[in-house]
Amino acid sequence: MKVQKFSLSDAKLVKSPGQDADVYVGNLVDETTGGPVTIGYGRYAPGQALTETMAVDDTMIVLEGRLSVATSDGTVTAGPGDIVYMPKGQSVTISTDEEGATTAYVTYPHWAEARES
Fold it and tell me: Which of 22, 77, 99, 116 is the most exposed place for a label (fewest CB within 10 A)?
C-alpha cells in the first residue's frame, strides 16, 4: 500500500451489517485493499443504540456529535476529538442522543472478516 489521504466524502456509507439501528459504516482500507487494519467512517443517527460483543479491537474517534459507550464497568461519553477504545470480547452498547455522531475508526483485525467467523 502507498500513503493515502481520505475524507468522509470518500466513504460509501452502508447500513452496519447485522444491526437494526440506524448506523452506517464505510471502510476505506480493509482486507480488500490489502491493509493490515480496517479504517473507515461511521455515522450514527440521533437516538440510536446498538449492543454487541466486540469481535475485534476497535478504536473510534468522534468527529461530530456525541455518543456514549456503556459496558459492565460503566459508561463513557465522547464528543468531537475524543477517542474511545473497545477491546475484543467486551460487550458494549453504543448510543447517541438527539444530535447523533460521526466517527472515524480503526480495527484490528478486519471487522468484516471477524463477523464472518
Answer: 116
User: What secondary structure letter does DSSP report for 10?
Assistant: G
What is the Cα–Cα distance from 85 to 22, expressed in whole angstroms?
A: 22
Q: Write down the H helix ranges in the chain.
A: 111-116
Per-residue confidence (pLDDT) for residue 69, from 0 to 100: 98
Question: Could you tell me the residue range of the domain that residue 82 belongs to?
Answer: 8-112
Question: What's the CATH code of the domain at 56?
Answer: 2.60.120.10
- Beta-sheet strands, E only, within the chain: 14-15, 23-29, 38-44, 49-53, 57-71, 74-78, 83-86, 91-108
Quick one: pLDDT at residue 117?
A: 60
51 CB contacts (<8 Å, ≥6 apart)?
A: 91, 92, 93, 94
Give the cell for residue 76. 463513557
Tally the domains of the chain: 1
pTM reported for the whole predicted model: 0.91
In a domain, 1, yes or no: no
Confidence of residue 52 (pLDDT cuts 50, 70, 90): very high
